[in-house]
Amino acid sequence: MRKNWSPYVWKLLWTVGLIVLLIISYKLELKVKNHVATTFQMLPIIWFQFIANFVLGIYLSLLFIKKWSVKWNWSLIVCVTIPLLIISIYLPIAITFVQNIAQDSNNYSVPFPSWLMKITTYGIPAIVAGLTLIIGLFSNTARVNNYK
Fold first, then answer.
1. Digit-coded pLDDT (tens) for 72-117
2. CA–CA distance from 33 to each of 56, 97, 120, 127 (Å)?
3. Signed CA dihedral, 42, 48, 54, 57: sign only
C-alpha cells in the first residue's frame, strides 16, 4: 500500500472540481441562451463564451502549478498570454462598442477580419490565454544561463 495519497487526492479533487465547473457552466449557458432567445441580443452569449473559456483555461492551469509562489515568466505572458487575450477579447469588445454607438441606427457592422472569427470559434485562444496567464504568474522554471 502507498503511504502518501496526497497527490492522488488532489488530482481527484481537481477532476471533481472540473466536472462541477462544467456543469455550472452548462447551466449558466442555458440561462444566457434563454435570455438571448427572448431579447434577440447576441451580446450576452458572446461575452459568456469568452468568460467561460477564460475561466476554464485558468482552472486547467491549476493542474500544472506545483508551487504557489509568484515568479513571473515574462516571455510566456508577453508572447503567448497577451496576444491570445487580445485575439479572444477583440470580438466581444468590438461588438459591445459598435452596439453602444449604433443604438439609434439599425445597421451597424463589426470591424474584424474573417480569420479572427475562424480561430475564435471554439474558444481555444481564450482557454490558452487563461492557462498561460496563471502558469506565467506562478512559473517556477529555472532560468537557463548561457553565459560561461
1. 899 999 999 999 999 999 989 988 888 877 665 666 666 778 888 8
2. 19, 21, 19, 21
3. negative
Q: For the chain, what is the mean pLDDT?
A: 86
Q: Counting Cβ atoms within 10 Å, is residue 18 exposed (0-12), middle (13-18) or buried (19+)?
A: middle
- Quote the CA–CA distance of 146 and 148 in Å, as a whole number: 6
Instruction: Supply 143's cell numbers.
Output: 532560468
Nearest 5°: the CA angle 54, 25, 17 is 85
Whose CA is closest to 116, among 147, 92, 142?
A: 92
User: What is the spatial distance between Cα 80 and Cα 72, in angstroms, rounded to a whole number?
Assistant: 13
